[in-house]
From TrEMBL:
Residues 1-158 form the SRR1-like domain. It comes from Baryphthengus martii (Rufous motmot). Belongs to the SRR1 family. Coiled coil: none annotated. This is SRR1L protein. GO terms for cellular component: cytoplasm; nucleus. PANTHER family: SRR1-LIKE PROTEIN.
């Protein structure tokens, strides 16, 4: 299965079109049927939604705020240039070694997030990203001069079960749902529509 968040307005944005093309090629390469790929972006127009339907892709009926459960199936999450809160929410929703081990995330480099944020801000606002770092394998997408803006800071992340099981018990004990009350630059579109846009 595949879930895609934050693709953007591909009818008017070349980078979003390139990201959509890469997603379609990726599904083909991995043998994932288009009907097993679900997308959501509150920015999609009716015409864009229709185009995605014609491509055989499924639109998620509502804004999950990144909180998509695996339901036992191995799932690729395609989240290029999404806000940190979406990754954090996704990790929270699937916070167990068994679930995380079935997940692959293509999106903003977790190492890059760690480098850009003060440690106290990372732990306070994005605690699930902070806690999973030692259980993560990450490989950056190769740079290509034609697509520097399209896939900059993008990595493939996966979570080997052996690494996850090596994390301390305290890592798994706290499972509070993230609220982001103190977060000043929250980059997520909330269900009620009150938040900021995705990263450029």
């Amino acid at each position: 299965r595949c879930v895609c968040y934050g693709l953007g307005r591909f009818s008017g944005c070349p980078a979003a079109r390139d990201q959509l093309a890469f997603l379609l090629l990726l599904l083909e390469e991995l043998g994932v049927p288009p009907g097993q790929c679900s997308l959501f972006d509150p920015a999609f127009s009716a015409r864009e939604a229709a185009v995605l339907g014609q491509l055989g892709l499924r639109l998620l009926p509502e804004n999950e705020e990144g909180k998509h459960g695996l339901e036992g199936s191995a799932t690729l999450f395609y989240m290029v240039h999404c806000g940190n809160a979406l990754y954090n929410n996704l990790l929270w929703r699937n916070w167990s070694a068994g679930a995380l081990a079935k997940m692959v995330i293509i999106g903003n480099s977790f190492r890059g997030i760690e480098e850009r944020l003060l440690p106290r801000i990372l732990k306070r606002d994005y605690s699930y990203i902070a806690k999973v770092l030692k259980g993560t394998e990450e490989v950056a997408l190769p740079a290509h001069p034609q697509y520097l803006d399209t896939f900059n800071d993008t990595s493939v992340h996966w979570f080997p079960l052996q690494k996850l099981e090596g994390l301390s018990a305290e890592v798994w004990d706290s499972v509070e749902e993230p609220t982001y009350q103190d977060c000043e630059d929250l980059e997520i579109i909330r269900k009620d529509g009150a938040a900021a846009a995705a990263e450029p």
